[in-house]
C-alpha cells in the first residue's frame, strides 16, 4: 500500500506564519529531474491544481502533483530551524542517497 506523504504540525505552523494565519497560497512540494543526485525537490508557494493531492490542516495546505507523488510515498514534510538556516525539509524513505544540502536525492 502506498502511503501519502505526511506533514508535521511544525511545518503546518510555519506555513500559517507565512500566510499570516489566514488562507493563502499552498506549499507545493514537487520532484524534478536534476540536482547533484539525479532528482531534486522544488518547494514553493503556489495555488493548487485540480489533480493535486491536498494535505490540509486548519486552513493551511500542502500540495503534491500526481507526477511527484510516487517519489514522495511515505515521505515526511517538516520545518527545520537550525543554526545553518531555516527551511522546509523532506525525510524521504524512497531516497537511496541524498546530497549534503538535502535538496537532491537518488532512488
From TrEMBL:
PROSITE patterns: HESB (PS01152)
Organism of origin: Paracoccus alkenifer
PANTHER family in UniProt: IRON-SULFUR CLUSTER ASSEMBLY 2 HOMOLOG, MITOCHONDRIAL (PTHR43011)
Residue stretches in coiled coil: none
Family matches, as Pfam families: Fe-S_biosyn (PF01521)
Gene Ontology molecular function: 2 iron, 2 sulfur cluster binding; 4 iron, 4 sulfur cluster binding; iron ion binding
Ranges where the Core domain occurs: 6-102
GO annotation, biological process: iron-sulfur cluster assembly
Protein name: Iron-sulfur cluster assembly accessory protein
